[in-house]
Design a protein that fits this description.
Layout lengths: L1 H28 L1 H5 L5 H4 L3 H19 L6 E5 L2 H13 L9 H7 L2 H15 L6 E5 L3 H17 L10 H15 L1
Parallel strand pairs: 1-2
Helix pairs in contact: 1-4, 1-7
Length: 182
Amino acid sequence: MADHARSAGTRAHRDLQSILYEEVLIARVHPEILRGEGLPNQLSEDKAIWRSRYRSIVDLERHLHDNGTRVVKIFLHLSKAEQRNRYLQRIDEPEKNWKFSLADIEERKFWKDYMHAYEKCLSATSTRDAPWYVVPADDKPTARLMVSQIILDRREGLKMSYPKTSDERRRELLAIRDQLTG
């Protein structure tokens, strides 16, 4: 039960973290979203809102770290040229058509705005305990290798191991085994 609760809590933190990042990135590029949040006008027009939102992200990640959760943040950086190539593949290859939407082309018009928003966000939310790893993602196999290595390195830093079984516990398990097989 405790593992299930911990897992649900971890999912909730992960989902909350995704929402926080979306609130910074998308709303920064599309201020009309920010205005639609029902914030008082003076707050939605105030540049300090971004510092406050970044601070919320950093505070959440610090809370997670202080409570034993290690945050690994990876930004897969795709060039505009590679994004174009992937969009063309999604149009040209019928099995990839489902991945494409006209909205993708509309959002592409905001490329520079998104790059600026990403730069500000990554700079403001990268900390010693929860740094950002920026991975060039034009070459998928190389990007996957880099992400795998980052995760392996972070995992090794955790110094995890299975708990040792005491002699008393081993005797207990053998007694239970006898009950199950006897």
